[in-house]
Amino acid sequence: MAEAILKRERVRDYLLELIETHPAGAPIPAERVLCQQLSVSRPTIRSAVEELVNTGLLVRQHGRGTFVARAKITQEMVSDTGSMSLPQAGGTWSSRVLEHARIPAGARVGRRLHLSPAADIHYIARLRLVDGEPMALEYLHVPAQVAPSLTLHDMESGDFYERLREHGVHVSEAVQSIEPTVVNDSEASLLGVPVLAPALLFERLTTDAEGRQVEYVHSIYRGDRYRIVSRLTLGASPRNTVDVQARVSGDPF
Amino acid sequence: MAEAILKRERVRDYLLELIETHPAGAPIPAERVLCQQLSVSRPTIRSAVEELVNTGLLVRQHGRGTFVARAKITQEMVSDTGSMSLPQAGGTWSSRVLEHARIPAGARVGRRLHLSPAADIHYIARLRLVDGEPMALEYLHVPAQVAPSLTLHDMESGDFYERLREHGVHVSEAVQSIEPTVVNDSEASLLGVPVLAPALLFERLTTDAEGRQVEYVHSIYRGDRYRIVSRLTLGASPRNTVDVQARVSGDPF
DNA sequence: CCTGAGAAGTGGTCTATGCCACTTTCTACC
DNA sequence: GGTAGAAAGTGGCATAGACCACTTCTCAGG
């Protein structure tokens, strides 16, 4: 499999170099200049620049130029397309399984899933990382009765709801709550933040087409790395509606 | 701000029509066909399609075609009030004005409102209560230049955006971020919670139809009394919902 | 000295076109 | 009948060029 060296990627890498070596706010060469320097056409340049603008590394200003963004670490906002999961920010997500078992639900989880505390559930605890850095702790619970043959591999899969569908469970809706909290000792050490650091507590209860509770997720997200951003528009529609607009564009300084 | 009818937007709207009228998984016309139908060039088509792919409404498959995405995840924020305000929980809301002045913006607020730090703003700090019990602290900033004759009464009014409209300011959109934090000494005493208690920090930057920043709001909500609840449904159309997304930020304001 | 008009440079949009890579379908050969 | 291969249709990448909109700077004219 030879390297399919795309010009667009070559340009992007070149720009990333520039971004790293230039201070925030510094201008990068004009698009027409880059064309000559890299021997590619302007649309190709624009495509590469656009990608970096979307990820927040560059800021374009009409008539002035293109500049290195103020906060270089800002990542792109991603709308999760297929699977109904927690909102995921840009970067490379990975996860490490901390614990995995088939255990009784217990009182708290049992109440949420409308189960007897003695009923078995599939349980998995994961540390979720972005670019190798801890981002969140996630505790997933699925009643054993709902999907008896669920495997660890199923629960680790990126498209978990697809796997559930293969087990005959058709997810239909979920109620999610978000509240602020602070991390305790064990959470702090797993996430690599100080004890009592601010964090977001997500809870999600998912229901299938037959009205059964099929999943309860409890997550702790690092407050210093995670933030919820929403864009509200007042338009023709009667409510505060917004069509999926992915980006909150680059913050001019 | 006149309509600068961009072809790209025309194509996008046309595609949105198709997406709404076609079932999930249905193919949309080939790019070269769309070119003829809409009398635009293929790069323009591709640009519009790309936007919708990024927002998760379409799926492209090399060699096969472009299809309406299978399931869109939408997240509806429970917000009872019609106007574009912070989500408000049940109960009787009231507020107590803590401070009110016309002062220079200062560096932090100035940067968000795109003003010189020396530019005047209307400033009001309020303690918001629910059923007589403190719920949140709210700090509202409006550039004096935008609405020179704004009064305290205007800013205290329930329908603040309606008052702004009477001053010739037509609010059009806002970007809001939510992150976890803990309260400091003064916040703690005002809210009646212990120091370091978990809280939610809301920030909202509002823009008017002319693209001016017209309002910056900074609020601290008690974590023990306030929680965001959202209902996620699978397969619904994104209309009349608020899509919440997230981003990683290394430089929180 | 100040001011305003224009030049020059920037990003923003769009066109017309070519070729490549992948998938599906149909056909011709065995 | 089965199968390999060509053909057709799709999206993926890239080019060269044109014109527009906005910003900044310069310089002539007051």
Automatic annotation (TrEMBL), chains A, B:
SMART domains xref list: HTH_GNTR, UTRA
Signal peptide bounds: none
Gene Ontology biological process terms, A to Z: negative regulation of DNA-templated transcription
Keywords: DNA-binding, Transcription, Transcription regulation
GO molecular function: DNA binding; DNA-binding transcription factor activity
Gene3D superfamilies: Chorismate lyase-like, Winged helix-like DNA-binding domain superfamily/Winged helix DNA-binding domain
Pfam families: GntR (PF00392), UTRA (PF07702)
Domain HTH gntR-type residue range list: 1-71
Record PANTHER family: MANNOSYL-D-GLYCERATE TRANSPORT/METABOLISM SYSTEM REPRESSOR MNGR-RELATED, MANNOSYL-D-GLYCERATE TRANSPORT_METABOLISM SYSTEM REPRESSOR MNGR-RELATED
Protein name (database record): GntR family transcriptional regulator
